[in-house]
Amino acid sequence: MSESDASLTIALAGQPNVGKSTIFNILTGLNQHVGNWPGKTVEQKTGLYTRDGQVIRLVDLPGTYSLTANSEEERIARDFLLREKPDLVVAIVNAAALERNLYLVAELLSMPVRVVVGVNMMDVAGQAGIHVETHVLQAALGVPVLPLVASRNKGVSELLDAALRLMKNPDDFAPNRPEIRAEHRPVLAEIRSLLSGKIPLYPEDWTAIKLLEGDTEITEMVRQSAPQAWERIHALLKQHEDAYLDVAGGRYEWVGRMLRAAMVKPKPGAISLTDRLDKIATHPFWGLGLLLSIFGLIFWLTYTAAMPVVIWLDTQIIPFLAASMRWALAPAPAWLTSLLVDGLIAGAGAVLALLPVLVIFFAVLGLLEDVGYLARSAYIMDRFMHWMGLHGRSFLPLCIGFGCNVPGCMAARIVEEPRARLLTILLMPLVPCTGRMAVIAFLAPAFFGKNAASVTWGMVAGDILMLLLIGIAINRGVLRGARSAFIMEMPLYHLPNARTIGLYVWHNTWAFVKKAGTIILLASATVWLLAYLPGGEVEGSLLARFGRWLEPAGRWLGLGDWRLIVALLSSFVAKENVIATLGVLYGSEANLGLAEQVARTLTPAAALAFLVVLITFIPCAATVAAMKQETGAWKWPAFSVGLLLVISFGVAVIVYQLARVMGWGV
Amino acid sequence: MRLRSKCKNLEEFNPSQPGHTPLSSLKPGERGVVVGLLGGRGLMCRMVSLGFTPGTEVTLLQNYGRGPLLVTVRDTRVALGRGEALKVLVEAL
After folding, report:
1. Count of structural domains, chain B
2. CA A326, CA B86: separation in Å to the nearest integer?
3. What is the pLDDT at residue A587?
4. Is A382 in contact with B79 (Cβ distance < 8 A)?
5. How confident is the model at residue A403 (pLDDT cuts 50, 70, 90)?
6. Which of A596, A565, A306, A612 is nearest to A434 (CA)?
7. What CATH code is assigned to A182-261?
């Protein structure tokens, strides 16, 4: 089954936080393709759905509050509707915030598309005392309106039935379209007649309204396509500059009329569950405490629940795989065995062993997102993000960066303003990802014994402090500019949906698996080659020579051993590679774990410096690629690599020298 | 920093009509009706699509005098930066 088999295209439209993705996931399952809209850094999800032998192509439009060209997402959504002309649009609205959600429906109904409305979260609204009569709303709107509880897969199939019925009988579509307020109707009619026949690609009614709204993109389009009419239109628009708020106000009045009989609201003053939870979750003091505890819990859970599995994979399964491979390859040449076993299994395998950590991390983060808590964390962190010229929204991608910096960079797309998005991406490599944390969790106990936990927490705290300082510096120095607006919807709390969380985990870990299968695999082979040539011995290899050449610089921070320097450099491939590289370079000594072997060669001061340089070192190759992709230029990842090279080396030297002064140098 | 000082001026901004105050001057639990939106078109568009149009009732949920605010508008909870809340003029109810 492929996209070319699809005979119909349905677009899913809706505002953010309406459960649109849940519905998309129910319909398409894993039969979906996640990519980018052509030429844009906005995620595009398409999928196939089969009903009665008919293959339907589903396109999930970006979640937008309106269809004015305010953001990339809004432009994409409306361009798709105008240019690709889907057979039908399914508009998903949230029953708990119908008034605002129908604003988008009002905009959709002004476009030349057929619309079916699904009223989702009927259960959440019911708990908040809001009751929606969908058949009354259907009668008012003149389009099919169906109730949904998508989180429990209720009503989704009926919604699709209604959509297919409408596609079979397109003449049944007789919507009640919103009209502009009476005082602006004459000017609208005049603009419309001026446009007549001049803009073949755009619906004239809709274009006239967008002109009155002052839509910059449409204004520019008309100026170029209809130059003769432009002068008169421009003069009319000048006279009616106030029309913008009236057009929007008119839509809300229309929404009010549609809803008058269809919705019962709770009595004013009723206290909802969300009110009660937010008393704590958004309190400047208790909310911060809650946020820190939740994060502490995530780390604790991730590392206590997942680390044993990782260590088991590392010490039992990977050696078993390596031994089996050696046995199976006994007749093969020695170099091939070495490449597959020491290079690929030890390198990429060690990285894949981190998957349990990532799965648990993203499952918890997905849960917090799905119940509605993550938006609160953005609200709580807003004041701190201000120090760096950012606002609360940037906290969310940084949060994801704790799992893996690669999806973190991609998640920075939710920050609307380009300058703030760029700064968020530049700060991403300073967020300690699971890869770095795994290396530290692996080495710290051998280095510091019973102080390992406090050293680890100190590392994380120091790293975040550094992120803050660098953020302030970049904001003041490199990327000056005014902070953009912080406006963010706080969704009602609701029960989580396992499928939504499952797919969240899947998409975020898949990015990581792909990276392990491509970049890391290739890089592991390269590291192996450098450690094998020219003589097949690590000691005399090219890698060792390069490491020895860097030894004088390493001595500044107590790392006079070329093997540590090489391990550090290999973290460019992937942070977690440090363990694998150390494994290759230190070889195996009986009765002594790898971490203990490394610990024996280091003084406490040097061990501390090693961890510091490790946690702040340059972004890994996959992150560099993601930074390039998201910023559209090589100069920003290059800037980041240069900056972090200086910072990690500088800070590690300071830490080492201070620790020596304090007597930890022996 | 520059932005904050600009906001200070706005706080002292003397609205043309008595009884009109910035949304950020409401206390938790107080309600107001939106009478105007200051600021550029981009900000105005975003505010409007979230439901802040003249004539709309807004309830202030949380305002600690600094940092962002929480309000309810058209059955939706919205977090607003203080700078943004200064640009929404309301008539207190």
Report:
1. 1
2. 70
3. 65
4. yes
5. confident
6. A306
7. 1.10.287.1770
Length of chain B: 93
Query: Cβ–Cβ contacts within 10 Å for residue A129, how many?
Result: 13
Most B-contacting residue of A100, A211, A275, A288 (CB-CB within 10 A), to test interface: A100
**Interface A:B, Cβ pairs < 8 A:** 111
Q: Extract the runs of DSSP E, i.e. beta strands, from A503-658.
A: none
Q: How many CB atoms lie within 10 A of CB B76?
A: 21
Give the tens place of pLDDT for each residue, A424-440: 999 999 999 988 988 88
Cβ <8 Å between B75 and A65: no
For B67, the domain range is 2-92
What is the per-residue pLDDT across A468-490, written as a single tens digit (0 to 9) for each? Answer: 999 999 998 877 776 678 999 99
Residue from the list B50, B62, B81 with its beta carbon closest to the beta carbon of A489: B50
CATH of the domain at B8: 2.30.30.90
**Domain assignments of chain A as residue spans, ordered by start:** 3-172, 182-261
Measure A175 CA to nearest chain B CA, in Å.
22
For B35, which residue in chain A has the nearest alpha carbon? A245
Reported ipTM: the value is: 0.84
Alpha-carbon span A9 to A591, nearest angstrom = 64
- CB distance A70–B54 less than 8 Å? no
DSSP of A480-501: -------EEEEPPP----HHHH
Nearest to B80 among A482, A487, A492 (CB): A487
What number is the average pLDDT over the span A282-294? 93
Tell me the whole-structure pTM to 2 decimals: 0.86
Who's near A491: CB < 8 A, 6+ residues apart? A17, A372, A375, B77
Residue B68 sits at the chain A interface (C-beta within 8 Å): yes
Residues B75, A100 contacting (CB under 8 angstroms): yes
Q: Confidence band (pLDDT; 50, 70, 90) for A551? A: confident
* Contact B72/A at CB under 8 A: no
CA pair distance A382, B80, nearest whole angstrom: 10
Best of A490, A492, A493 to disrupt the B interface by mutation (most B CBs within 10 Å)?
A490
Q: Render pLDDT for A237-287 as a digit per residue (tens, 0 to 9).
A: 988 887 888 899 999 999 999 999 999 988 776 778 888 899 899 998 999
The pLDDT confidence band at residue B19, using thresholds 50, 70 and 90, is: confident
| CATH 3.40.50.300 assigned to A3-172 | yes
Q: Which residue has the higher pLDDT, A625 or A91?
A: A91
